[in-house]
Model the fold of this input.
Amino acid sequence: MTLKEKYAPFFRIGAAVNTRTVDTRAGILKAHFNSLTCENDTKPEGVTRDGVSYDFTRGDKIVNFAREHGMAFRLHTLAWHQATPEAMYGGRTREAAITMMESHFSKMAAKYGDAYAVDVVNEALDDSEGKFLRDTPLKAIIGDDYVDVAYTLARKYFPGNALVYNDYLECDPVKSKKIFELIHGMKRRGVPVDVFGFQSHYNIYSPEPDAVRRAFELYSKLGVRFQVTELDASLFAYGDASSLPAPAQELLQRQAGYYRGLFAVYREYAELIDSVTFWGVADPDSWLNNFPVKGRHDWPLPFDGDGNAKSCAESILDF
Ligand code: XIL
Done:
């Protein structure tokens, strides 16, 4: 059985791809996945250099693959402090920036309005203890209500799509309180947010599946649905900058156990989860080969470079 078949009763299984991996991994994608995300090609910078002229060639390649193969897709992402050309918002007044935002959202909706979910604002919160919103160009230009403004505009152009707030460190005690507060406040103010997106950039030591369960428990009080949007499980602990020539068997076994525990939690919360998306398909294509240590190999995904299912893929399927 493939991932998407085994998980059909629970939620969609997704992958993030780029214009290369959508070709090189096409066979695995068709067999195992029923949701796609553009890893970079629908970020603002992926489609425009200035917010005026647009080139959707790369996003279209991926989204058309999804459409042709009956796969659903997530739109990532409308507003982010990274991957956004300075010319879009820089030097504008609040009103002009909001106009730009509206124009960008309307163009994205015209092309990709069939996405089942839209990451509207990505990573708006600061990671540190004292601070709430992250200092970003959009916050500086529009003001602290820029998140509310973005979701209100997004609803106008994406009336039937799930609007997602997407962030990382979502199981961390400090960050999770802020995520809760942000979404809770939006709901109270009547700002349309439908889904919390757990980015889920984890490693084989942390967060433990119990901590992930506690996060689901906490966020389930918000009255939003859930999507796991960018899952990977690095072989390196947070802060470990060492490297390995090859993945030790023992680490791959630990990874299999880690993913087993994680998917058991996902199945417990399946009624609230729309999809679980891996941030890539096969290890050599993962962004973690360049982050946080440039050029260091990592092996965080369910398939190896030859396209074979790793033991962690088998553990996900074995229940
Ligand atoms: C990453 C991509 O995987 C890289 O290829 C790119 O160089 C930087 O962005 N959180 C997100 C994703 O929301 O968009 C990021 O993707 C990973 C962290």
